[in-house]
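User: Hi! Is it possible to get a structure for several chains at once, not just one? Here's what I have:
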Amino acid sequence: MIEIKFLGRGGQGAVTAANLIVQAAFKEGKFGLAYPSFGAERRGAVLNAYARIDNKPINVHQQIYEPDVVVVLDRKVIQMTNVVEGLKENGIVIINTDKIPEDLVFNGRLFIVDATRICLDLNLVISGWPVVNTAILGALSKATDIVKIDTLVQVIQENWKGEIGKKNADACLKAYNETYEVVRVI
Amino acid sequence: MKVLIPKSKPAKGAVGKTGLWRTSKPVVNHNKCIKCVICWAFCPETTILRFEDNSVDIDYEYCKGCGVCANECPVNAIEMVED
Amino acid sequence: MSIIEDKKSLSNVKVVTANEAVALAVKCAKVDVGGAYPISPQTSIMEYLTKYIETENIPMEIVRVESEHSAMAVAMGAAAVGARAFTATASQGLLYMAEMVYWVGSSRLPVVMAITSRAMGAPWILGNEHTDVLLPREWGWMVLFPEDNQEVFDTIIQAYKLADTTLVPVVVGLDGFILSHTTMPISIPDQSIIDNFIPKNTPKPYALNTEDPFTHGNAVHSNLYLEFRHNIFKTIEDSEDLVDEIDKEWSKLTGRSYGGVIEEFLLDDAEVAVLVMGASSGDAKEAAKKVREKYGIKAGVIRLRSIRPFPVKRLSKIAQKVKAIGVFDRNMSPGLGGMIATEVKFALYDLKNRPIVQSYIGGLGGKDVKIADFENILVELKEMVDGKREVEKVKWVGLDLAAIEKFLEEV
Amino acid sequence: MTSIKQLPYEEYFLAGNGSCPGCGLTIGLRNVLKALGKNVYMVVPASCSSVVQSPFPNSSATVPLLNTPFAASAAAASGMVRALKIMGKDAVVMVWAGDGGTFDIGLATVSGAAERNEDLLYICYDNEAYMNTGGHRSSATPLGTFTGTTPTGKRENKKNVPLIMAAHGIPYVATASIAFVTDLYDKIMKAKDMKGFRYIQIYSPCTPGWLLPTEKSVESAKLAVQTGIYPLFEIEGGIFKISAPSKAYLKKEKRKPLHDYFKIQGRFKHLKEEHIKLIEQWIDQMNEEYAALDGKKIF
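Assistant: Yes, the chains can be modeled jointly so their relative placement is included. Here is the combined structure:
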């Protein structure tokens, strides 16, 4: 079972990202469940969402304490909370940022994508916020083998029809192509 | 098991013979009555019987003897008599 | 077993939250009228329903009322003339609605209500807890509690069957947030299966009509009231088998069965078992497997699926096999114990060789309940069986008084 | 305008029911049901009517009747109306509620149903206090009135619920009186054929609660109109119109002395001259305001 933790801020779509990854996994014959951090959601505040993916049905509901993958939707979150808390040995961290967070210390692999710029370029903005959830999923697909990029694009276009679906699919693809691993010396 | 539903059927005299509640009873003086049916319209009890020709009578089985009919009769054709 | 195993046969699979599963089930049950009032974590049920009505032309009336009290009143008024009715609430909303909930139970109107469990204030709290769902068990309602999103969908459908058959309304409880906001795949059966399973032309002796007018719910003398209460008591008491039968019938149609009143997990040879409701059952099952592997303890899980009717018969049978039951209550009866533990003890007291029953309280207000918690419970139960540990009136899970005392000092 | 002789013979509320002798609400209900006929569903919250309809297993109502808890009637009726609509049944749904269930505990519910413009007829029979509990002040109780919980007279004035209801923008609001049965009958007939939320408030004396001789209930209701303390009006499509029985009494000089109204009711016995003056001032002001509104669109 793979456990993924999404850290974002209210309004960025972390919950939707977790839901989409489960939908995509299901399409590929896997099982999953996704849930948000429970409580009142406030725009701008840190908000977590979680997903579990497995080859067999999942019925575990305890919270995720030791994620395999951490996806950070906003570089500010790094200052607000310890994003690598509980990360498994050799776990994967994916961060939406335009510069490498040099002081983030952990034992694992780090992937970077500037999803915010991708979304601004595509005008994927709702109420003034770049909605980076579909873009960051592209990065997740690049960094891990949890779901294929083609499946993600398909799921995105099933969730949003027409122009908006296409824009989100583009963001996802673009992020997939622009995501890179940072070679780090620990 | 048969389900017991709290439902009730329409019935005259649902609380019993309310005529027994009276202390006095209305008596219609048919000679004086002008058949205006005001007493019938204002009876709180549905116990003034109105006939085709607009003459009226009292259903003493259920009349509670409130006296509204006598009070409202414009020609004093109804008298309250001790019961 | 409730999760979709054979995907090839599935014509209609959706990845949804349990709240959307409720709304989909209500749509598939062809509910006529619903009362809608927002409260977390129930709100999205009504959002989905209103979306279906306004964008998919579903023939259902949603009355967007001004309070939970009115939401249940709407369901009552609709059911009273023979319509299929639904509403949903949680926590404070249920408390505000309470008067109507009791009235509908006593009125024998087959309303179905979803309660997305949530703790109650003060202080303000959104987290999951089962106390609210359990309250209507004293109010003349059946109370069912599914484990995952698929079962939530299926149980709403089963609830209409149960309500229409017994003329007792049914609460379907589901774990707030832990299910209500968690997406999982569910399979939706063909509409014809549902239509045949819960036909609308069942006898409705309670339904007001102008052809044969009667009065519903008028005053009754004290010397006749006891009989009405007895009738509700007996109907619910006698429904234990019916819940099983409905579940079996459903499994014939869909291949999905949940064990009726109780799902039994690894109980055949079990010496100790934890009794639990809802989503945490999955974690409890993991724990049972683990303690079997790690310590060789013959552990099992009793998943209580029906709280009313309370499965006295089935529980008694299970109690003949196991030596200790740890009842994990995500609720409490202040000063006494867990509400379910109290009922389990009542149910088993008359047995000759009754097992140890240990009340555990935890997870209140949404505090996380972990697989490890259930492992501890199962290990403790084994120690009790072996005489190495005393049974206590109540044991608390995850209680950290030192932490809050530290805060209090700061205040 | 219907004459008394034109009122239908049919009775839908049977003799031998549980009302007190001289009960105002049954006079109202009898005549309301004459107007509505058989094709009506009644919804009744906790009130005197819960008792008046008589206990299980009998009922004095010959139309389908649903009893509800105190605050629930307008919402239960909303559910019923929607259900009948979706089931394709055409009938009038009528709430028959007291002033406590309307002015106080039920106000949010009534307001909610009015705001949604539910297609139902809401009737409040106003006996100006919680009479079923034994006579306790409600917000419909007038200034100065003795009740079980205002033993030296109520300090506050009556709440103007008809105008509150009209402010919802509903199609029809009216006040009526059991003493003017044909006016009442006509208002019900008019409201019956309308769509949307219709509110009618009927002045209904309570003989035990008002410490009123049983034969005086109609007389006191007539005096309430003639003294100007309870003006009858309609607000149809937002246009305010004084009803015929009250027309003459808008003018102070035409009104009967308030004393005539007070002296037959024990609930006003304790009032001193200065209190009566205060109440008179209030009546004068209300009638002046209503006279100014007459014929105007107010909402």
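The mean pLDDT of chain B is 97. Chain B has one domain: 15-82.

User: Great, thank you!
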